[in-house]
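ok so for the tutorial part 2 we go from a plain amino acid sequence to predicted C-alpha cells. step 1 is just haveing the sequence, like this:
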Amino acid sequence: MPIQNACFKRKFSIKASLFMGLVLSACLVEQAFAVLTTTPLVTTPRRVTLQVGSAQFGTVNNVVFNVTSDKVSPNNVSIEGIPDATAGTATASPSNGILIRATSEVPTTMAGTWQNLKVDVNSSVGLTCVNSASCGATIIPFTTIKWVSYNRGGLDIADGTFNGGNQTLFHVGSINAGLKLENTLVFTYSNTTLYPAGQYKGTVTYTASLP
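step 2 — the prediction. this is what the C-alpha cells look like for a chain of 211 residues:
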C-alpha cells in the first residue's frame, strides 16, 4: 500500500486498502516487527501518513489463502495468507507479513497539546464469490480471518480478528512529539466452515487519523 500524505487545519485522516482473496479447491477454492517511537516536533504543518503493504503509491496488495481439498473437513486446518511480491515487509519480520506503518507529525506551534494517533480497519463487506457458477452468491465474512502481531509492545497493534465492521487497532496520544507505529501482521483464515468451492475476493480498508 502506498504512503500518502494529508495536511488539514483540523481533523484529518487517510485511508489505505488491503485486498484479500480466498481460493477454495475441491470443496473450497495478512510476525510482527513492532516498533512504536516518538518523533520530534517539526516546523511544517501537522500531518499523518499511512502505509499498508507496499510503499509504492497507488498499490493495493493482495493476500491469498489457498484452501486445497486435503485441508477441509474432516481435516480442516487454518490457512496462512500469502502476500504478493510487492507487499512491503520489515527486514526482521516473519515471512508472509504485511507492514502497517502510521506516522504523525506535529508542528512546534502545537507544543503542549495532546495529539492522538488512531488506526482503524473496516471489514464490513465480506469476501464475495467471483464466479457465480461455482459458488453462487456465497459471502465469506472477514470474521474468519485473524492476524498475529509478533514481538509487539504494550501499545502496538495486538493480535486480533476482523469483526466484520469498523474496529480500532491503535489509539495512542502524545504530547510535544509525534508518533511512528510500525507493525507487520501475518493473516490466517480459520477454515472452520465448509463453503462451496470457488474463488472469493474482498477488501479491508485501514484508516489513520489525527483528530
